[in-house]
Amino acid sequence: MPAQESSDTAPIKLEAIAKGFTKPLYVTNAGDDSQRLFVVEQAGIVKIVQNGAIVETPFLDIHEQVGSSGSEQGLLSIAFHPKYRENGYVFADYTDKDGDTVISRFTASGDAADPESELVLLNIDQPYANHNGGLVMFGPDGYLYIGLGDGGSAGDPENRAQDLDSLLGKILRIDVDSGSPYAIPNDNPYADGGGKPEIWAYGLRNPWRFSFDDSTGDLFIGDVGQNKYEEINFQPAGQGGRNYGWRQVEGNHCYKEDCDQDAYVAPIAEYPHEQGCSVTGGFVYQGAAFPQLQGSYFYADYCQGTIWALQRDGTRWDTSVALESDLRISSFGMDQDGELYLTDGSSGVLYRLVASNA
């Protein structure tokens, strides 16, 4: 359904937390009770924010090996291992100087990760400079999930998103605690054949940002659209192998003529390009700042700066405008307490969502 502005919008506002970042693309926490936030810059640097200030020494600096000449290239995200306090492992998704996707593990100690400790898990050829996906995130099952776009150009010319022998246009799921350099979970849908064993979900154009509901394990996927529609896809906890339909469908509409929409999993929300141009998937809110919105999924549009709240009502999903901004919202993030943040890729400011009366 298109996102409609509501007269009963959420009582939230944005509070600037830290300034001075260069093209920030992601913010996350280490789950180590340190209250630190980690902001990923596109050029290949990760900076620490502690007590509202940017720590002078970067947490990770791999700019010499990151290719970021394309607008959708660069160091795109990091993910801390669930046992980070014990092993110091942090995982990264970046494009290298050749424009290909690299998924790597680094080892950190204290306030710094060692670039020389890199262990490459995956190196994926990218045929074009756009649609790289870019998110790595651990699921509640302890496995690493990886979002990959369809490889770029326009209209997925090679139909990679539907090709189960390609990793492009997919969300992958791997076990980084077993195998060398990783193992395939036994319950992956193609673990025993029929497609690449890493594949968890497919039929995606550019799943720039996705996240799990910490209370249910459900997966929400913000998939950037082609010409007309942006969409939010949903996967109930543990139900891998779903096909979200790209390039046959875009949102709830046929992209290819005479497509069979019933063959694919429909999005739970969409909006037309009259309301924006590129969806930024967010998180299900779990914090305490505005408890009336706990359980709401927040997402935004990169071009318009609109922030929506998506709530489930039985079998229906209701969308309302939570806040109108003029920001270039490149990503949402969450701290260890469940409070939400966002990065403005244009101004280089890190914001926190707070109650409007705070």
Describe the structure.
This protein has 358 residues and is mostly beta strands. It has a single domain, classed as TolB, C-terminal domain (Neuraminidase). It is built from 1 helix and 27 strands. Strands 2, 3, 4, 5 and 6 form a 5-stranded antiparallel beta sheet that branches. The longest helix is centred in the N-terminal third of the chain and has 4 residues. The protein is globular and about 55 Å long. The N terminus is likely disordered.
Task: Please render the helix and strand layout as text.
Blueprint: E1 12-18, E2 24-28, E3 37-41, E4 45-50, E5 53-54, E6 60-61, E7 75-80, H1 84-87, E8 89-95, E9 101-109, E10 112-124, E11 136-138, E12 144-148, E13 170-174, E14 199-202, E15 209-212, E16 219-223, E17 229-235, E18 249-250, E19 253-254, E20 269-272, E21 279-280, E22 297-301, E23 306-313, E24 316-324, E25 329-334, E26 340-344, E27 349-355
Antiparallel strand pairs: 1-27, 2-3, 3-4, 4-5, 4-6, 7-8, 8-9, 9-10, 11-12, 12-13, 13-14, 15-16, 16-17, 17-20, 18-19, 21-22, 22-23, 23-24, 25-26, 26-27
